[in-house]
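Colleagues,

For the teaching module next term, I've prepared a clean inverse folding example: a structure given as C-alpha cells, and then the sequence designed for it. I'd like students to try predicting residues themselves before seeing the answer, so please don't circulate the second half yet.
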C-alpha cells in the first residue's frame, strides 16, 4: 500500500498544504489504496511535503508523484481530454501553483495577524524560551522563499492585484462549468481546489479571500470539490455573522 506523508489538517482545511491536498485527491481519483502518516521535511526525499513511499520507492514533489502513479498503475487522470485540453490544464496548473499559491501564502505567513493566529502555533509545544526564535526562523525562511519567486519583492497592494488577476482568470476559465476541463474532476482540479480552498478558508482573513468570495462560481467549485472528496470535513466559507 502507498503511504502518503502529509502535513495534517488545520486552518479549517483537511490538509494544511495545497500540495498535499493535490496528491491525496489524485490518489483518490486514481482509485488507489493509501494510508496517511505525519511527514517531516527533514526526512523527505526532496525536503518538502508531500512525498510517498510505494513498495520501498520514495517519491517527492506532487507533480512527480502524479507521474509515478500514472506510469506505474497505468492510470490517466486526464483521460478523455484532447492534447489542447491537456496543454491548457498544464498552463492552469502552473498559474495556480507558481503564482496564486505564492500570493495566497504571502497572506497566510506575512500578515502578522494571520501568522499569529495560525503558523505561529506550530511551535507551542517547544520550550517557551525557544518559541520566538523558532517563529522568527520560520518567518525568515518563508519570506526568503516568497522573495525568491518574485512575489515578495512587491508591495502588499501589488501582491493583491497580482492574486486578483489569477482569481479572475480562474473565474473566466471555469465559467458555468462544474469542473475546469470536463464534466468530472481531472488532474488540474486537485491543485486548483487545494489552493482555492486555502484562499477561501474562513480561518484567515485577507484581501484575496474577499476577492474570491465575489466569484460565486469559484465558491461553488470549492464546495463541490469538498463535498466530493472530503464529505465529512466541516467546511464553512464565511464567519458567522
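(Answer key — instructors only)
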Amino acid at each position: 500500500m502507498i503511504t502518503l506523508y502529509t502535513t495534517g489538517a488545520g486552518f479549517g482545511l483537511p490538509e494544511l498544504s495545497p500540495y498535499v491536498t493535490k496528491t491525496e485527491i489524485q490518489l483518490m481519483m486514481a482509485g488507489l489504496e493509501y494510508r496517511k502518516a505525519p511527514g517531516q521535511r527533514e526526512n523527505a526525499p526532496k525536503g518538502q511535503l508531500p512525498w510517498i513511499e510505494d513498495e520501498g520507492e520514495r517519491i517527492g514533489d506532487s507533480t512527480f508523484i502524479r507521474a509515478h502513479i500514472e506510469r506505474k498503475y497505468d492510470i490517466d487522470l486526464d483521460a478523455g481530454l484532447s492534447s489542447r485540453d491537456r496543454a491548457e490544464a498544464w498552463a492552469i496548473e502552473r498559474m495556480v501553483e507558481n503564482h496564486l499559491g505564492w500570493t495566497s501564502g504571502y497572506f497566510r505567513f506575512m500578515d502578522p495577524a494571520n501568522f499569529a493566529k495560525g503558523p505561529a502555533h506550530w511551535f507551542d509545544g517547544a520550550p517557551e524560551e525557544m518559541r520566538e526564535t523558532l517563529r522568527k526562523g520560520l518567518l525568515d525562511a518563508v519570506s526568503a522563499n516568497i522573495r525568491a519567486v518574485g512575489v515578495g519583492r512587491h508591495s502588499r497592494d501589488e501582491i493583491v492585484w497580482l492574486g486578483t488577476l489569477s482569481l479572475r482568470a480562474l473565474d473566466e476559465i471555469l465559467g458555468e462549468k462544474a469542473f475546469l476541463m470536463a464534466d468530472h474532476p481531472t488532474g488540474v482540479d486537485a491543485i486548483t481546489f487545494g489552493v482555492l480552498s486555502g484562499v477561501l478558508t474562513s480561518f484567515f482573513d485577507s484581501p484575496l479571500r474577499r476577492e474570491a468570495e465575489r466569484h460565486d462560481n469559484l465558491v461553488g467549485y470549492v464546495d463541490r470539490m469538498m463535498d466530493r472528496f472530503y464529505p465529512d470535513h466541516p467546511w464553512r466559507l464565511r464567519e458567522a455573522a
